[in-house]
Design brief:
The protein has 199 residues and is mainly alpha-helical. It has one domain. Helix 1 runs antiparallel to helix 6, helix 2 packs antiparallel against helix 3 and helix 3 packs antiparallel against helix 4.
């Protein structure tokens, strides 16, 4: 089971490393403005689509071992929901908009495709299930420091998700930056949780 836990950690941390490197080197992509999901578009879009799917599968596999390692089926279930939703985010990419890929309309289209709507729904589950998992961990993990860390993570991630929602709806030029900060907080915590369970 230890190998599965480290697999989950690799999935969480690998997701962040991949989108950061890809976003910094992608022609026409502006990490401060554009969301991570937009990386699944364009000629190199396969890389982020694969990032969603592969990391989601690794995290879901790691969740299986959490039930035994931390004696919490509920926590394992919340993490598994998060992982499966990541996979769905990769299977259903968002529509081109807000200037990416280059040549796409700069604004947000009034009508979106079914795959975009499914991507949005998967995203809500992704960003909703992770703070739920952190709250569960605050009760399920016996270590006092981890209880505190999980509670703070849940609060910061929820606030970040709300801030990103506002930034996205208002087409803020810093929407991508807000989303990245939120993702880093949540995914870093999840990877560390897997590592703690494996220790």
């Amino acid at each position: 089971m230890t190998a599965l836990l480290w697999t989950g950690a690799a999935g969480a941390w690998g997701f962040v490393v991949t989108f950061l490197l890809d976003g910094w080197t992608r022609p026409g992509y502006r990490p401060v403005r554009h969301p991570v999901s937009a990386l699944a578009l364009g000629p190199r879009g396969w890389l982020q689509a694969a990032n969603f799917v592969v990391c989601g599968v690794l995290i879901t596999a790691g969740a299986v071992a959490v039930a035994d390692a931390l004696d919490s089926v509920v926590l394992a279930g919340a993490i598994a929901v998060f992982g499966v939703s990541l996979v769905a985010s990769g299977v259903f990419p968002m529509d081109a908009m807000r200037g990416y890929p280059p040549g796409a309309p700069d604004g947000t289209p009034e009508d979106t495709s079914l795959r975009h709507r499914l991507h949005d729904r998967a995203g809500v589950v992704v960003f909703g299930s992770l703070p739920v998992a952190a709250v569960i961990a605050a009760f399920a993990v016996p270590d006092a420091a981890w209880k505190w860390c999980s509670g703070v993570t849940a609060a910061l991630f929820t606030a970040g998700f709300g801030a990103f929602g506002w930034a996205w709806e208002s087409d803020s030029p810093r929407a991508g930056l807000v989303q990245r900060a939120t993702i880093i907080v949540g995914w870093l915590w999840l990877g560390l949780l897997f590592a703690y369970a494996a220790a």
